[in-house]
Design goal:
Elements lengths: L1 E3 L2 E6 L7 H8 L13 H9 L9 E3 L1 E6 L2 E6 L2 E3 L10 H9 L7 E4 L12 E2 L4 H18 L3 E7 L1 H9 L3 E11 L6 H5 L4 H14 L5 E6 L5 H18 L7 H11 L3 E8 L2 E10 L3 E9 L6 H16 L4 E6 L10 E11 L2 H26 L8
Parallel strand pairs: 7-9, 14-15
Antiparallel strand pairs: 1-2, 2-4, 3-6, 4-5, 5-8, 6-7, 9-16, 10-15, 10-16, 11-12, 12-13, 13-14
Helix pairs in contact: 2-9, 7-10
Organism: Pelagibacterium flavum
InterPro entries: Acyl_CoA_acyltransferase (IPR016181), FemAB-like (IPR007434)
Protein name: GNAT family N-acetyltransferase
C-alpha cells in the first residue's frame, strides 16, 4: 500500500475483497450498473469463484483500487499471470524472445476480462479523470517492479485509454474485429436492402439452408434461463471448444453462477430439431450492444453457425433497438455477412529495455499494416456503394 497526497493505492488479491457497489460504481463512472456486462463485479466474481480465473489457473487477481480518504476513485482490474492463454492478443513471440536471451517473461501483469475479447475500459474512474487513469498505470508499473513481473498489459482498451497510455510512454498495439452497426433498421429486410443484390441473395439462401427440415431458433434470457438450457449449451461448448482450443476455459459452474447474478444480461440462442437442442450461441447484453461470445454444436448443419452467431444476433439487435453487435475475435468471413472492420486496441509496459525497443519497432510497423488493412477491408463490405 502506498500514498500519493490524499490518495491511497491498495492491491486486492480477490474480487470479493472489493464491494460490488464500489466496483460497479467505478465501472459505470458513478452511474450504477455498468453499460458493458463484462465490467460487472458479478462477472469477475463468477470467473473467480467457479475456479476459471484464479491463481491455480494462472489468473491471480491483483486488482488496483485507488481511494481518496474513504471514497474510491479508481480501479484497474488486474491479474498476475504465468502464461498468455485466454487473452486473444498474442504475445507469445515476445515471451520467446526474452526467454531465448536468458530472461523471464512470466510472471506478467494483465488487465483484461479473462477469456473475453470485447473492448471495455480498463482504467475505471468515478469521474473520468485522466489524472486518475494515469495514476492507475503508474501503480501497475510499480506493482510489476515489486512482484518482479516483466511487463504490464491492458487489452481491448478504449481509444481514450490508448491516448492516455501513449502519453505515459506505454506501447500501443492495434488489431481487427468485425462489428455490425444498426443504421436505424426496423427489420432484417431493411438491413438486407442496404446490401448488394448478390450478397442479399447469398444471406437469404444461407438462412433458408440453416433452418431446413424444421430446425428452429429460440432466444432465452433472464428468468427463462434454466439449468436444462445450460446443460445443453455446455455440451455444445465443450465439444466445439475441445476441437478448437484443446481445453475450454469455462467450466459448468460458471454458467450457473452468472445466471444467479446477471441473468438479464445473458441472451442464449439455441437451435432445436424437434425436442432436441443441437447448437447454441452465448451472447451478453450491454446498454446498446450485443456481445457474441461462445458457440457450439453437436451436429453439423450447413450455415447454422452463421445463423445463430450472426443473423440471429442482428435480428435481436434490431428487435431491441441496439446500436451494435460485436461478434467476438477475428473472423474475416463475417465481412460478407454485414460485419464491418473495427480497430481494437491494447497497451503495453515492458520493463526490459532491449525487449521494449524491439517490440516498439515491431508494433510501429504492425499498426501501419493493421490500419491500412482495415481501410482495404472496408472496401470489401457487402453494402451498396454510394
Amino acid at each position: 500500500m502506498s500514498e500519493n497526497s490524499e490518495l491511497t493505492i491498495s492491491v486486492h488479491p480477490t474480487t470479493a475483497s472489493i464491494p460490488s457497489t464500489t466496483w460497479n460504481a467505478l465501472a459505470s463512472c458513478g452511474g450504477g450498473k455498468p453499460g458493458n456486462p463484462f465490467l460487472e463485479h458479478a462477472f469477475f466474481l463468477a470467473l473467480e469463484e467457479s475456479g476459471c480465473a484464479t491463481g491455480a489457473t494462472g489468473w491471480q487477481p491483483q486488482h488496483i483500487l485507488i481511494s481518496r480518504g474513504d471514497e474510491p476513485v479508481g480501479l484497474m482490474p488486474l491479474f498476475l499471470k504465468s502464461h498468455s492463454m485466454g487473452e486473444y492478443v498474442f504475445d507469445h513471440a515476445w515471451a520467446d524472445a526474452i526467454q531465448r536471451a536468458g530472461g523471464n517473461y512470466y510472471p506478467k501483469l494483465q488487465s483484461s476480462v479473462p477469456f473475453t475479447p470485447a473492448s471495455a475500459p480498463k482504467l475505471l474512474t468515478a469521474d473520468g479523470s485522466a489524472d486518475t487513469q494515469t495514476l492507475l498505470l503508474q501503480a501497475s508499473e510499480a506493482l510489476a517492479e515489486r512482484l518482479g513481473a516483466s511487463s504490464v498489459h491492458a487489452t481491448f482498451v478504449t481509444s481514450d485509454e490508448e491516448a492516455i497510455a501513449a502519453s505515459a510512454n506505454w506501447l500501443v498495439r492495434h488489431d481487427t474485429q468485425f462489428h455490425w452497426t444498426n443504421d436505424g433498421f426496423k427489420t432484417f429486410d431493411d438491413f438486407l436492402d442496404t446490401l448488394q443484390s448478390r450478397k442479399r441473395k447469398a444471406i437469404r439462401r444461407e438462412r433458408r439452408e440453416a433452418l431446413i427440415d424444421g430446425i428452429t431458433c429460440e432466444w432465452v434470457t433472464g428468468s427463462d434461463l434454466t439449468e436444462t438450457h445450460w446443460d445443453a449449451f455446455y455440451e455444445f461448448y465443450m465439444d466445439t471448444g475441445a476441437r478448437k482450443w484443446g481445453r475450454p476455459y469455462l467450466n459448468r459452474e460458471f454458467f450457473s453462477r452468472i445466471t444467479e447474478t446477471m441473468a438479464e444480461s445473458i441472451v442464449l440462442m439455441l437451435a432445436r430439431d424437434g425436442a432436441d437442442y443441437i447448437a447454441g450461441a452465448l451472447n451478453f447484453l450491454g446498454a446498446d450492444t450485443l456481445y457474441g461470445r461462445n458457440w457450439g454444436a453437436i451436429r453439423e448443419v450447413p450455415f447454422l453457425h452463421f445463423e445463430l452467431c450472426y443473423y440471429q444476433a442482428i435480428d435481436f439487435a434490431i428487435a431491441h433497438g441496439l446500436t451494435r453487435v460485436e461478434a467476438g475475435a477475428q473472423g474475416q468471413h463475417k465481412l460478407a455477412r454485414g460485419y464491418a472492420p473495427a480497430t481494437t486496441r491494447s497497451i503495453h509496459h515492458i520493463v526490459h529495455p532491449g525487449l521494449r525497443r524491439a517490440v516498439a519497432e515491431y508494433l510501429e510497423d504492425e499498426r501501419r499494416y493493421i490500419d491500412l488493412h482495415n481501410q482495404e477491408l472496408a472496401d470489401y463490405t457487402p453494402f451498396r456503394k454510394g
